[in-house]
Amino acid sequence: MEHVDPEIDDRLFRNVMGSFATGVTVITTKVAEEVHGMTANAFMSISLNPKLVAISIAENAKMLQHIKDVRQFAINILSTDQQQISKQFSGQLHLKSEITFGSYKGLPVLEESLAIVTCVLHSEFVAGDHTIFIGHVTGVKLEEKAPLLYSQGKYRELKELEG
User: What is the pLDDT along the chain (163 residues), one digit of tens a residue?
Assistant: First the structure.
């Protein structure tokens, strides 16, 4: 195994990782009738059979313990018209607006999302300063909308290339 360079600058590493364009999600769950949510872009499909997805949550995030406690969560894949919702759940907005949640498969969801994936916890793995939660998919919904993207510290939209 090759030795990893401990001299890699943290800021440079963050900038390199941030240059990868991702979709934007809000992870939601409910603990004792209280809804919790957080913006995340660390989400991916893992397996088709069985249907599994992964999210990565920082060890210092409140959402980490909520998912461990209730063992279920929803992934709301945001559309271009949900940028303010992303900012609210990432703590970027000082003035918080009231969010209305719908319910799908017993979990709180953002109704105007591009897509929704509900999960029960399949497994979890600690990796560095994050926990990777693998969710067994219990439901999916999809709308005809454009995805909200994030890259290089900015929100982005898709544009078709001439070709």
Answer: 566 677 888 889 889 988 889 999 999 999 999 999 999 999 999 999 999 999 999 999 999 999 999 999 999 999 999 999 999 999 887 766 788 999 999 999 999 999 999 999 999 999 999 999 999 999 999 999 999 999 998 999 888 887 7
Q: Where are the domains of the chain?
A: 23-151
- Phi, then psi, of 104 in degrees rounded to 5: -145, 125
Token digits of residue 7: 């001299």
Q: What Cα–Cα distance (Å) separates residue 102 from each residue in 29, 71, 99, 143? A: 12, 19, 10, 15
The two three-digit tokens of residue 18, written as one number? 């941030």
Compute the C-alpha angle 149/91/148, nearest 5°: 10
If one counts every other C-beta atom within 10 angstroms of the C-beta of residue 32, the result is 6
**Given 2.60.40.10, 2.30.110.10, 1.10.3720.10, 3.40.50.150, which CATH number is that of 23-151?**
2.30.110.10
pTM above 0.85, yes or no: yes
Question: Which phi and psi (to 5°) does residue 64 adopt?
Answer: -55, -50
